[in-house]
Design brief:
Elements (H helix, E strand, L loop, with lengths): L6 H9 L18 H13 L3 H4 L3 E9 L2 E14 L4 E7 L8 E8 L1 H5 L10 E2 L1 H5 L10 H11 L3 E6 L15 E4 L9 H11 L3 H7 L19 E3 L15 E3 L7
Antiparallel strand pairs: 1-2, 1-7, 2-3, 3-4, 4-6, 5-6, 6-7, 8-9
């Protein structure tokens, strides 16, 4: 089966995981018992976990709640390639053993995106700007390998749902899943959040932008990034303090900078 990234990159990604990022929340509950720890050790020795082992691509980027662009957060993606045109990612709020699963993202090629029904396309966001701006990184990966990976990702599209909103300091996965989007132009993302990420990983987003100047993704396909046109697709969340109090599909004013 052909992979989205070459086999060499898989090996490099498995070996390079980048800087340490802790989860921002502590889940309530009693400490693990001796019995639970023993069961974990036994399971690790005796049980195979092929789906987890296939998560060989690590990406770090940023998301915001669809309809709430001021609510932004860093997202750690652990992905696997199902084939040349489809990837699936588990998203965490950190990269250590206590990281919380925040959600999932599905990544598809432009060809598959074009074939989607028109009413499905607003759920998806482009990756072109995330790549060319330097915001999306593969921590720890050598530059030549990361560049090849980003060249491939620049023309893809993602559908992302967050299920545990740890950016809101929620200790448990409360509320309903929320549709997330990616940034599409300068001036949208909080620069302090990017600087904090860069310092932690020892990367420079501005320098990566320059290094990726030769990556020229095709124009974004019609229907993607629909939030820019004022179309907000979101689950209405009846729980107190949750983001995304939107009808299932609402029409708001287009983004002023679009």
């Amino acid at each position: 089966m052909r992979q989205l990234i070459p086999s060499l990159l898989v090996v490099l990604l498995a070996a390079c995981r980048g800087g340490h990022t802790e989860s921002p929340v502590q889940a309530p509950g009693a400490d693990k018992s001796t019995k639970t720890k023993a069961l974990e050790v036994g399971a690790a020795m005796l049980q195979r976990a092929p789906p987890i082992g296939a998560l060989d691509m690590y990406l770090d980027g940023f998301h915001f709640y669809n309809g709430h662009r001021d609510s932004q957060m860093e997202a750690h993606h652990y992905c696997s390639a199902l084939n040349e045109e489809v990837n699936q990612c588990v998203i965490y709020d950190g990269n250590d053993k206590n990281a919380k699963i925040m959600g999932v993202e599905y990544i598809i090629s432009a060809r598959l995106f074009r074939a989607l029904p028109d009413d499905e396309k607003p759920l998806w966001h482009s990756h072109a700007y995330e790549v060319t701006s330097g915001e999306l990184v593969a921590p720890g990966l050598p530059e030549v390998a990361e560049h090849a990976l980003m060249q491939k990702l620049a023309s893809t599209y993602g559908k992302t749902f967050h299920t545990w909103h740890t950016d809101l300091d929620k200790q448990l996965p409360l509320g309903v899943p929320q549709l997330m989007m990616g940034f599409t132009q300068d001036g949208q993302i909080d620069p302090a959040m990017v600087r904090t990420r860069d310092e932690r990983f020892g990367v420079n987003t501005a320098e990566k932008r320059k290094e990726r100047a030769d990556i020229k993704p095709p124009p974004v396909e019609p229907g993607a990034d629909a939030w820019q046109e004022g179309e907000v697709v979101q689950f209405a969340d009846p729980t107190s303090g949750a983001k995304g109090h939107q009808p299932s599909r609402a029409k708001s004013q287009p983004e002023s900078e679009h």
